[in-house]
Amino acid sequence: MEPSIQPSAVMLPRIGEKAPAFKVVTTQGEIDFPKQYEGSWVILFSHPADFTPVCTSEFMTFASMEDQFAKANCKLVGLSVDGLYSHIAWLRTIKEKIEYKGMKNVEVKFPLIEDITMEVAKRYGMIQPGESSTKAVRAVFVIDPKGVIRTIIYYPLSLGRNFDELYRVILALQTADAFSVATPADWRPGDDVIVPTAGSCGVAKERMDNKKDMTCYDWFFCTKKLPKETVLSTVLKK
After folding, report:
1. What is the rounded average pLDDT for all residues in the chain?
2. If phi over 0 gives left and psi between -120 and 50 gives alpha, with beta otherwise, what is residue 72?
3. Angle at 188 between CA 14 and CA 74, to 5 degrees
4. Rounded CA separation 100/57 (Å)
5. Which are the contacts of 185, defined by CB distance < 8 A and separation ≥ 6?
6. How far apart are CA 118 and CA 75, in angstroms?
7. Which DSSP string do the residues of the chain spell out, in sequence order?
C-alpha cells in the first residue's frame, strides 16, 4: 500500500532550489522576499524569541558585523514568531541598555520579520517540534543573488551561532562561483583552493604531468594558489 501524504505536510526548502517567496511586515517596513533582494546575497535567519539572552548576543553581533557583510554584497534579514511591537521594544532595549563584549549602543538596522502566525517559519522548516513547537530554532539560509538557496544551517535553541563561520560561508560561496573552484576544509581567503576533478583520464594525466600551478595529491585531488588579494578584490565591494 502506498504511503499517504497528509494535506498539512510541507516540503521544506532544499539547497539548489528557489527560496520560498513571502510578503511580510518587519521592523523596517514591508518586504517582498526574495524579489526585492535580487542581485544581492542574503542571510535569512531565525531566532527563538525576543528578550532572550542568546538571541540578544546574536543580534548584537550581527548588527556589529552588518557593514562587513554589506561589503560582501550580503544583506541580513531576521525572523522570530514574536510580534512587531515586541521586536521594536527589544531592539530599543539592546541599543539603550545592553553592553556585551565591548559592544554597546548597538542599533539593529536590518529588518526583523513579524511572524506571529508562524507561516514563514513553517515554510522554511524553522519550527522543529522536537526542540519547540512555539519557538523557531536558530536556522540560517544563505540565498544567492538569483534567489537560490545555497546553504542551510540549523542550530538548537541553546547554541549561539558562530558569526565568523557565517561570514566565511559567504566569501567561500562567492569565491567558488567566481573562480569555478571548490574550497577545502577550514578554507579562508588566501588558502589554496581545490581544482574540479578531471573529467577524463587524459585530462587527469595532463594535470599530473603539469604541476607548475597546482599541487596534485592524486588524480582526483588537486589544489592551486588563489591569492587573498585576488579573492577579496573580486568578492568585496570597493
Report:
1. 91
2. alpha
3. 50
4. 7
5. none
6. 22
7. -PPP--TT--PPP-TTSBPPPEEEEEBTEEEEETGGGTTSEEEEEE-S-SS-HHHHHHHHHHHHTHHHHHHTTEEEEEEESS-HHHHHHHHHHHHHH--BTTB-S----S-EEE-TT-HHHHHTT---TTT-SSS--EEEEEE-TTSBEEEEEEE-TT----HHHHHHHHHHHHHHHHHT-B--TT--TTS-EEEPPPSSHHHHHHHHH--SSEEEEETTEEEE---HHHHHHHHS--
Euclidean distance between CA atoms 13 and 15, whole angstroms: 7
| Separation between Cα atoms, residue 207 and residue 15, nearest integer Å | 31
- Provide the grid cell at 177: 562561483
Domains of the chain, CATH where assigned = 22-163 (3.40.30.10), 180-235 (3.30.1020.10)
Cell for 98? Answer: 545592553
Tens of pLDDT, residue by residue over 81-112, are 999 999 999 999 999 999 999 999 999 999 99
Say how far apart CA 16 and CA 144 lie, in whole Å.
10
Q: Is 55 in the active site?
A: yes
pLDDT at 134 over 60: yes
Q: What is the grid cell recorded at 217?
A: 595529491
Q: What is the pLDDT of residues 62-89, one digit of tens each?
A: 999 999 999 999 999 999 999 999 999 9
What type of residue sits at position 228?
K
